[in-house]
Write a structure and sequence with these properties.
about 475 residues, alpha/beta, Rossmann fold, four-stranded parallel β-sheet, 16 helices, about 55% helix, about 10% strand, phosphotransferase activity, for other substituted phosphate groups, Bact_transf, transmembrane, transmembrane helix
Length: about 475
């Protein structure tokens, strides 16, 4: 796994992406050759190759972007064959028209529809053969990193379960090296004899990484000298927050200390970063408003027809540095949703939601008016979701480090929204904060692009949260 623009890119994802790009290229090439054989004419194959070069490049680039956006490379999910082909089919459908239009407008080829039809058939077959069968059985199995967990308490137990349940294709836990922490629990795996030097275990078990899964590091709990020996031998040693950040894209509150935030990397702001983000916000919000205004108009008409109430709903939310602003949304609840003046969490099957409201909430259409907040500078396209002042006061009392999320502008979409299932409670807010902290710590324009791509998956497949 390596890091590009503050995003951890798993080697597994990189290999799968390269294989899929090769499959897209070969499928398009074979499809072009097939149509050439089936189409009698005066042009030789060299002419067909020349005409298909730029459509081929466009098709490969689009499919790579769409595969990423639609969640085919999610390391935390084991895609079944049905899921893989389903998402690949959606990607093909979204790429079809741009490639078809480009071919008609900028080349002399008149068989683009047949070429794309054969491309789809070849691509699905190749995905089954190479991507799902051969790749999974060979290359990916050899890319699993071997992890040694130092610790035998609840933190070690939780980490082991996370890896075994959700990340076993990328990591293998070879066992646990005990410490003097005292918080000992039943562990699912080999517990090595603490009298054996740790560096010997590392060499004999061919350990790739050591993870320190101990809550308290002081008082002689850790075998510091042995960890130093292992590190000198070239084995990376990570603490639990750093490894969780890489593994799950979140910062765990229960194992995080203020010192890690102070001395660790990330949290880069500065004028250049702020200017780049503002330009990104202005451009993307303007493009989306110009593109989606017909959908917004239809949503407004549907809301008005259903109950004759107001189309828009404005609510006070907490923004950058705790400053409040009026957040705009399409109204999705009844006009008397909070007639008693008591703020309530919105729930999944909330009976205050109208029929039109249920649809626009599910498809995220109700959030589109917030593009105006983005143009005003009150919000960003990507960031932690803005919360109501009443809830913020409560959450800042109950959850440590909650105020950190207000060090950046709130967003129309965010890392927590594309990574965590729907929920509205203090416990859900704690979990979402872990994702928000990851975003605040690692924010960049590249990460913003990535989250927008992930939002496409959330909208199309109904995943994620709000």
């Amino acid at each position: 796994m390596f890091k590009i623009f503050n995003i951890y890119i798993p080697a597994k994802m990189t290999l799968e992406l390269l294989v899929d790009m090769a499959i897209s290229m070969l499928s398009f090439g074979f499809a072009t050759f097939t149509v050439y054989l089936l189409t009698p004419g005066s042009h030789d194959f060299a002419y067909w190759v020349k005409q298909s070069t730029y459509p081929l490049m466009l098709y490969v680039g689009l499919t790579a972007l769409l595969y990423t956006a639609l969640g085919i490379y999610r390391i935390e999910a084991e895609n079944t064959l049905r899921d893989l082909l389903g998402r690949a089919s959606v990607a093909f459908a979204l790429a079809f028209f741009p490639v078809y239009w480009f071919t008609l407008m900028f080349t002399e080829a008149d068989s683009s529809f047949r070429v794309l039809a054969f491309t789809y058939l070849y691509q699905m077959g190749a995905l089954i053969l190479f991507r799902f069968i051969m790749l999974r059985q060979s290359a990916l199995s050899r890319m699993t990193r071997r992890i040694l967990i130092v610790g035998n308490g609840r933190e070690a137990q939780s980490l082991s379960r996370q890896i075994q349940d959700h990340h076993h294709s990328a990591y293998t836990v070879v066992g646990f090296y005990p410490t003097e922490s005292g918080d000992q629990v039943q562990l699912n795996g080999q517990v090595f004899d603490g009298s054996i030097p740790l560096e010997h275990v590392v060499l004999e078990e061919r350990v790739d990484e050591i993870i320190i899964a101990v809550r308290e590091h002081r008082g002689g709990v850790l075998p510091i000298r042995q960890l130093l020996e292992a590190r000198i031998l070239g084995t990376p040693v990570h603490n639990l927050p750093t490894f969780y950040e890489r593994l799950k894209g979140e910062v765990p509150l229960e194992s995080m200390k203020a010192s890690w935030l102070i001395y660790g990397g990330g949290f880069t702001q500065g004028h250049i970063r702020a200017l780049a983000k503002r330009l990104f916000d202005l451009f993307s919000a303007s493009v989306l408003l110009l593109t989606l205004w017909p959908i917004m108009l239809l949503a407004a008409l549907a809301i008005k027809i259903e109950d004759r109430g107001p189309v828009f709903f404005q609510q006070e939310r907490v923004g950058l540095f705790g400053k409040t602003f009026k957040c705009m949304k399409f109204r999705s609840m009844r006009t008397d949703a909070e007639k008693d003046g008591v703020a309530r969490w919105a729930s999944t099957n909330d009976n205050r939601i109208t029929r039109v409201g249920a649809f626009i909430r599910k498809t995220r259409i109700d959030e589109l008016p917030q593009l105006i907040n983005v143009l005003r500078g009150e919000m960003s396209m990507v960031g932690p979701r803005p919360e109501r002042p009443t809830f913020v006061d409560m959450l800042e009392r109950d959850i440590p480090f909650y105020a950190i999320r207000h060090s950046v502008k709130p967003g129309v979409t965010g890392w927590a929204q594309v990574r965590y299932a729907y929920g509205a409670s203090v416990e859900d807010s704690k979990r979402k904060l872990q994702f928000d902290l990851y975003y605040v710590k690692n924010n960049s324009v590249f990460l913003d692009f990535f989250i927008l791509f992930e939002t496409v998956r959330v909208v199309i497949f109904g995943e994620g949260a709000r």
